[in-house]
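Homework help board

Subject: predicted structure for assignment chain

Our instructor gave us this sequence and asked us to write out the predicted structure in token form, then describe one feature. I got the tokens but I'm not sure how to describe them. Can anyone check?
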Amino acid sequence: IHLLVHVWCLLRGPGAGRLLVHDPSTRSSRLRALRRLAVWRGWTPLLVYVDTDPVVARAGQVARSRVVHGGRFAAHCRRWSGLRDEAATGACRGWSTRMCTRDDATDTLRNALVGTCPR
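My token output:
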């Protein structure tokens, strides 16, 4: 259902504000589809990646009672491992990107939303 909400929001177009879509996907096909849709509707897409150790990420899932199946989580971690270096360059799979840690995620997201995120 989350993907449907994302698509609906993207289809609305940018209007007067910015749109923050939380999507932890590391699948290239999904990233391409979301980017194409965003650009088609007039958004300027930016990916903000929160780089977190898998053990810390898993502990956070457990704490929130939102645990991703072990095999899916392992696949996500493998894909992220392949994307990390590319994302750190500021561009990844056609997106502009920003990297942050859990500690600076709030500031990074806030800056991205107000358009002051440094390149």
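Reply (TA_rk): Your tokens look well-formed. For the description, you could write something like this. The chain is about 55% helix and 10% strand. That's the kind of observation they're looking for.
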